[in-house]
Structure prediction request, 497 residues.
Amino acid sequence: MLKNWTSHAEYQQFIISILSSFYKTFPKRIIDIEPSISKLYCLDLDILGEILKPHYSKTGRPATLQPEIFRSFSLMLFQKETSITNWVTKLRNDDLLATCIGCASDETPSLGAHYDFISRLWLSDLSSDRIKLKRLHSFKKKPSKTKAPGKNKKLPNKHPDIVKKITNFLGNGRSFSLRAEKLLQKIFTLVAVKPSFDLNLIQQENLTIAGDGTCVHCHSSYYGTKVCKCREDGIYDCKCDRKLADIDATWGWDSHENRWFYGYTLYALSSYNKEYKIDLPVYLRFVEARRHDSVTGVVALAEFRELLPQFKISNYVLDSANDNYPTYELCSKWNINPLIDLNSKNKGNSKYPPALSINEKGVPLCIGKHEMVHDGFEKDRSRHKWRCPKVCGKIESCSYSKQCSPSPYGRVIHTKPAWDIRLFTKIPRGSKRWKKIYKTRTCSERINNRILNDYKIHSLRIRGKKRFSFMTMIAGINIHLDAQLKAFGFNILNLLE
Prediction:
C-alpha cells in the first residue's frame, strides 16, 4: 500500500524551513553541498506517486518514505558514494544529509527499504529472481587472446540476419513490451526527459538524437563460487558447476582498452543543445556485453518512440557498427534521416553498383579522385547535385581538369537516394549539413563518460542488471538536473539568506 506521499511543494517548504537554521549555524557546510541541495530542490517527484501506485499492494502496512528514498539515491550519486550500505549509515548519522532528502535523522529509510524500492521498479517476478540466484552455472573460461578482434575494433555480429528480423518486427508496429526495465524507462522519461523538453532544453523541432554503447565492467568474479567437494579430494582445477554473484553479466570486448571484459553494455540515446552547450540523455538501457550495437541501435530507437511518441525525430546519428540496410530501411519507414558512417567491411555489399567512384565516406569522386562538392537538391527530379571541386575552389589544381569537362561550370554528377538508400542518403554524405549534424554524435560519448565516471556507475559496489539499470536511471536524472541549473542558474542559497 502506498500512502503518505509527500508532495514536491511540501518537500520544498520543509527543506527551506530546516536549512535556514542550518545555514545560520553551519554556513560553510551548506555552501559545500549547495549544488546537491539545489538539484534536489528542483527534482519534482509528484508524478512518481501515480506511476508507483499500481506496483504496491492495496492492503497491508502502508509503505512510507518512497520519495525520500528516491532523493536518497540521487543524493548518494551527487556525493559520489559507491556503497548503498555505507550511504544509509551516513544518512542516519548526518542531520544535514537527512534533511536534504526530506527526513529527520532518526527517520531515515533503512537499507532494506532502499533495496526493496529498487526491486519494485523492476518488472520481473521477485521469487523467480531469487531462484535464479541460487541456481548453479557451468564454468565458462575467459575468451582467449587469439579470438580478440584488436584495438579499436569491435566483435562481429554473430547473427547478421537478426537486425533484419528485428526491423521487420518493429516495422509492423510491434514492440518488446515485456522488458523488465520498462518502468524504469517510463520514470526516467516523465521525471527527467519530459521536464527538459518542456523547458526547451531538448529540441522540440527537427530533433537529432545520437546512439552509442559503452562497456561497463562489473566487479563480480566470472569464476564464481565452487560448491563441489573437489578441493577436499585434491582436485583444484575442476570445471564443476558453481554459483555466480552476478548472473546477468557476460563476456564482451572492450575495443578502447583492447581487452576482454566481464559485465554489460550501456546503450544511450542523447541529444545536444547548441544554445546552452549541454548534452542530455533521452534513453538508457543495459544489455548483454556481447550484444552488437547494430541490434541495440534499432531497438533503442523503437523504444524511445514508444516512450515519447510526441517527439518528432528528424535525424538519427550512429557509428559504422550500424551500417546495414535494415537500419536504413526502418529509418526511412519512420521518416527519419539516418546519419551513419560507412563500414569499411561492407565494401561490395551495395545494392546499387555505381558507375561513379565513391570514397570510404560515401562521397562521389571525380576522375582525379577528389571529393565532389555538394551543390544542393533538385526537388523536381529528386536528386542531389555534385560539382567539380576545382571550380568550387576546394582544390587549387587537378591534372585531369582538361579531360574532365571543357565547361567553365565544371563537371556535374547527380545521385538519387532511390538508387541505394545506404550510399545515397537524403542528407548527402560529405555535405556541410551532414558534417554539422554528425558532429553531435559525440554527445552520446560524453553522456556515457558522465554516467560511468562523474556519477561513478563504473565504481558502484552493486551486482546485477536490475541494480545497474536503476542506478543508471538515477545518474541520468541527475544529468538533467545539472543541465537545468546550468541553463537557469538556480541557487538554493538565494532562498536561505
In short: The chain is about 40% helix and 15% strand. Residues 353-419 form one domain.
